[in-house]
Amino acid sequence: MFKYLEDFVGNTPLVKLKRIPGATSNTILVKLEGNNPAGSVKDRPALSMIRHAQMRGDIKPGDTLIEATSGNTGIALAMAAAMMGYRMVLLLPKNSSIERVQAMKAYGAEVILAEGMEAARDQAELMVKAGQGLILDQFSNPDNPLAHYESTGPEIWRDTAGTVTHFVSSMGTTGTIMGTRRYLKEQNPNIQIVGVQPCDGAQIPGIRKWTPEYVPAICNFDLIDRMMEVNQPEAEEMTRRLAREEGIFAGISSGGALCAALALSETVENAVIVSIVCDRGDRYLSTGVFPA
């Protein structure tokens, strides 16, 4: 039986690291979200938000959709919009990598660059108020974490045979951590949920520390067991190590999350720690994080 492209979103590999963890009683697993069709964990909420909005009758093919994004959600939405027949307008910070912008345009999306992520969110709201399109709003849309409650969480539980003890995720919109947390806690309330944010001054694509007025509505910090911070140099070095020592070509937020997972590993024993590898490294080649 033939399948459609959307049928291949999710069910990404969960692999055990061999060298980076060193000698430890813990098992460090990483979930390779770059294996999704558009190359990131954001394929899940992008498809979920469009599909559920369409099912409710909020949107229909041919409509213009508007979204502010730092990159991966935009690429995923551009793919989903092309697949499902929507016009996509994406607002990005000016410091977004050229690979991300080009990928969105390749899928047929219109790209508008803003001064920063907050400015992009504000401009998207203004465009909607001006009647220029409809917004999915990944920051407040419950269909974002729902995608991870319905897929990411169950996959981790299944692929660890219920042995997962800790889940570590970088935090951007927070959809991944909130939805996965909900599912895993329903299976075992003792599973520890660890959120990763950047240190002050760090500019790590895909990881954010929002000012209070911009904290995503889908986020509830009280439901996260532990918050950890990562600085930019260590996130970038871990990203390079992932490629050199494990053969996993990933983005910088993935290196940041793994830094936190390894720091966590030093404080526990006989744990099964799952960390999210959010995307692939090829969309960061122009940033200088990898050797020229």
From TrEMBL:
Pathway: Amino-acid biosynthesis; L-cysteine biosynthesis; L-cysteine from L-serine: step 2/2. It catalyses: O-acetyl-L-serine + hydrogen sulfide = L-cysteine + acetate. CDD domains: CBS_like. Belongs to the cysteine synthase/cystathionine beta-synthase family. NCBIfam families: cysKM (TIGR01136), cysM (TIGR01138), PRK11761.1 (NF008735). It holds the Pfam family PALP. Keywords: Amino-acid biosynthesis, Cysteine biosynthesis, Pyridoxal phosphate, Transferase. One of its GO terms (molecular function) is cysteine synthase activity. Its cofactor is pyridoxal 5'-phosphate. This is Cysteine synthase. InterPro entries: Cys_synth (IPR005856), Cys_Synth/Cystath_Beta-Synth (IPR050214), CysM (IPR005858), P-phosphate_BS (IPR001216), TrpB-like_PALP (IPR001926), TrpB-like_PALP_sf (IPR036052). Its EC number is 2.5.1.47. Residues 6-279 form the Tryptophan synthase beta chain-like PALP domain.
